[in-house]
Amino acid sequence: MTPFSLSTDIYYKNRESGPVFDLATTMEKLRVVGYSLEEIMLMVTEHAADNFHLKNKGRLEVGYDADITIFDIVKGTKELVDSNGNKEVTQELIIPTCTIVGGEIYENEPISKI
């Protein structure tokens, strides 16, 4: 079975204690099991917007809202745990650096400050 879209079921307990934490971690979990960055980007943008019938969202095209998150892809290790407690280690980290919404730029806090 191949997922069509990707999101998180994040709430205060699994943001603090895991296993979800944030969307970037969820994206890393798909990378570690073999999905390409291109496949994952479609899952969190176009496909997610299409699932919820969000007009003007999910694509960087003329006429669409240019609300985006910019990520750095860096080498590094991190243990990833799924909801059943299974563990994998990734060698590639997806780090959100800033978000642009409605033309406003929001710098993300460094991970060490969160």
TrEMBL record:
One of its GO terms (molecular function) is dihydroorotase activity. The lineage of its organism: Bacteria, Bacillati, Bacillota, Bacilli, Bacillales. Gene3D superfamilies: Urease, subunit C, domain 1 (2.30.40.10). It holds the Pfam family EF_0837-like_N. It comes from Listeria fleischmannii FSL S10-1203. Keywords: Hydrolase. Its EC number is 3.5.2.3. The keyword NADP does not apply. It is an enzyme of class 3 (hydrolase). PANTHER family: DIHYDROOROTASE-RELATED (PTHR42717), IMIDAZOLONEPROPIONASE AND RELATED AMIDOHYDROLASES (PTHR42717:SF1). This is Dihydroorotase. It comes from the Bacteria. Signal peptide: none annotated.
